[in-house]
Design goal:
Blueprint (H helix, E strand, L loop, with lengths): L1 H4 L2 H19 L5 E2 L4 E2 L8 H4 L8 H12 L3 H14 L4 E2 L2 E3 L5 E3 L6 H17 L6 E6 L2 H4 L15 H14 L3 E2 L3 H6 L15 H14 L13 E7 L2 H6 L7 E6 L3 E6 L2 E3 L24 E6 L12 E6 L7 H4 L5 E5 L8 H4 L7 E7 H4 L11
Parallel strand pairs: 6-7, 6-15, 13-14, 13-15
Antiparallel strand pairs: 1-2, 3-4, 4-5, 8-9, 10-11, 10-12, 12-14
């Protein structure tokens, strides 16, 4: 013992190491990290077969390493310490997230899947051919925040990011040639770039950014948008830390505010089952607050409107929205203009599209995707079968 005391630093390190090891053993396993908005690895079950597994990803040692990485004691606090140290070193990015001005974060997007973009475009064109009764199809892609909020990017970052606008030009050309109506939100968003149209800590646009797009879309149909001040029951959800924060864990991030409009609705069904309203209010209290909008990403929703200002007596107007999560901020506004709003998210749809939409009639079809999802989402193929 006396000989050990001659090496106090070594002794302190050993106590630190074994102390944390012992604490890890008695600390309960966490299933979910609210701080990171992610599920954590569970303790793998040991077996000789798992230990000798040939596939590296399925091997016991690999899974145990993931478990230890996810479950070590004070994980959230250590992540914060790492974030502070990197900020002190003047780093402008972490884990694929760029730190911009005014507390904005942006995804580092250096390459895109050109083949997937072409396939997605082809699938939507094929969908239009499968359903010729849907005579008026509007198509739109939404650029990610770095393409619009260029003045908030770190210096020089825009030179390396994928030029989404160029790809969008080509997709729009192909879709217009196939007979789709193009509504291009890029100029409108750029005109309002100094306003709160994208979240600081998340990849989505805000409900105000979506409102601007809604106005342009509705005007393209010859209808009059509802002024923002006339929207029903505005409610603010504070303390929103989105997907960019979950990746970067920036210690001094400024939380976002989700503003939603609690527009009255009639009957709502989700995947054929009755549902209460279009929002999941309990999720506004969770970390992933954005999932409260439109109850998250459901496969197929049918919403009856009771606020349609454009209702024509004796006639039922319907719109189908084919979308990703960006549309969740925009869809409620459509209830002011249609008697029924149907929403299809191919990622979570369990039925074949041809079966789901058989016999359906729509005055309008809106296909709307965020560019990054459009360039990566293989589920768009579900629209063709």
């Amino acid at each position: 013992m006396k000989s050990l005391l001659k090496y106090p630093i070594l002794l302190a390190f050993a106590l630190f190491l074994y102390g944390f090891f012992a604490a890890d053993l008695i600390t309960p396993t966490r299933e979910f990290s609210e701080f990171e908005n992610a599920y954590l690895a569970d303790r793998p079950r040991f077996s000789l077969e798992a230990l000798l597994e040939r596939d590296q990803e399925d091997r016991f040692t690999t899974k145990y390493e993931e478990y230890v990485s996810d479950q070590f004691i004070l994980r959230d606090e250590w992540i914060t310490v790492k974030s502070i140290s990197e900020w002190a070193l003047a780093k402008i990015e972490n884990n694929g997230i760029l730190y911009g001005d005014d507390h904005y974060m942006f995804e580092k997007y250096l390459a895109t899947d050109e083949d997937r973009i072409q396939k997605s475009t082809g699938f939507i064109q094929e969908f239009m051919e499968l359903f010729p009764q849907f005579e008026h199809v509007t198509f739109s892609l939404i650029p990610n925040s770095y393409e619009i909020l260029t003045d908030k990017l770190p210096e020089g970052a825009d030179a390396h990011q994928v030029d989404q606008l160029a790809y969008m030009d080509e997709v729009y050309r192909q879709m217009a040639a196939a007979g789709a109506e193009i509504v291009d939100f890029r100029q409108t968003l750029s005109d309002h770039a100094q306003e709160y149209i994208y979240y600081r800590t998340d990849h989505h646009w805000t409900t105000y950014g979506a409102y601007l797009a809604y106005c342009e879309f509705i005007e393209s149909l010859g209808k009059t948008p509802v002024p923002l001040e006339e929207m029903a029951n505005p409610t603010e959800v504070t303390g929103f830390y989105g997907t960019y924060f979950s990746k970067a864990k920036l210690f001094n991030a400024v939380p976002d505010v989700i503003t939603y409009y609690d527009i009255p609705v009639g009957q709502v069904t989700v995947n054929g089952q009755p549902s209460e309203g279009i929002y999941a209010y309990d999720r506004f209290a969770l970390r992933d607050k954005y999932s409260g909008l439109m109850q998250g990403n459901k496969g197929f929703m049918e919403i009856q409107s009771v606020t349609n200002r454009d209702h024509v007596e004796g006639r039922t107007s319907r719109i189908l929205v084919i979308k990703d999560s960006y549309a969740n901020s925009l869809i409620p506004y459509l209830l002011y203009h249609f008697d029924e709003v149907d929403v299809l998210d191919p990622r979570n749809s369990e039925l074949r599209t041809t079966e789901l939409l058989a016999g359906k009639e729509y005055d309008e079809v809106l296909v709307m995707y965020n560019f990054m999802n459009y360039a990566s989402d293989a589920s768009i193929a579900k629209l063709t079968y």
